[in-house]
């Protein structure tokens, strides 16, 4: 069924099973498994691990260094604070690293790597697919369009600087990043 599961303090394992579930990790270091259904998961104060199912899930890491994996479906992954690892898996996913230096993997299909605050960290996109994926800047001070970006070669990829936010796009040459790879519209989730 459609369950609400809370982890409280400690190392908890939360399994939503079938249904549209809401899981709250609480204060401990938690493991959350979505199962089938459109699930919503919230981490807590420690490093949590969240795994979506085959439907459209929403995961919010909140504080600490979290691991969020969308699996199949069109998922929203928001790392929150900390150095997070986000992997969209299959589907049309939106990945928001949040504050901290995050590692972002979109997975198969067209994904959006979104940066929505001046506080977003120095993130790395590991699998940007030119012409398929999109990098979105929304709410970054002084960034309204492609002309506001600084793109330079760095470590076998391209470093994109947008105001106070920097993003390393691994394995993609600077000449391959064009205005078509970016969006500056408000993020719709």
TrEMBL record:
Subcellular location: Secreted
Sample GO molecular function, one term: calcium ion binding
GO CC term (a single one): extracellular region
Top-level lineage group: Bacteria
Keyword terms, alphabetized: Secreted
Main location per the UniProt record: secreted
Secreted is among the record's keywords: yes
Keyword Mitochondrion: no
Record-linked InterPro entries: Hemolysin-typ_Ca-bd_CS (IPR018511), Hemolysn_Ca-bd (IPR001343), RTX_toxin/Mannuronan_C5-epim (IPR050557), Serralysin-like_metalloprot_C (IPR011049)
Pfam hit, one: HemolysinCabind
Protein name, UniProt field: M10 family metallopeptidase C-terminal domain-containing protein
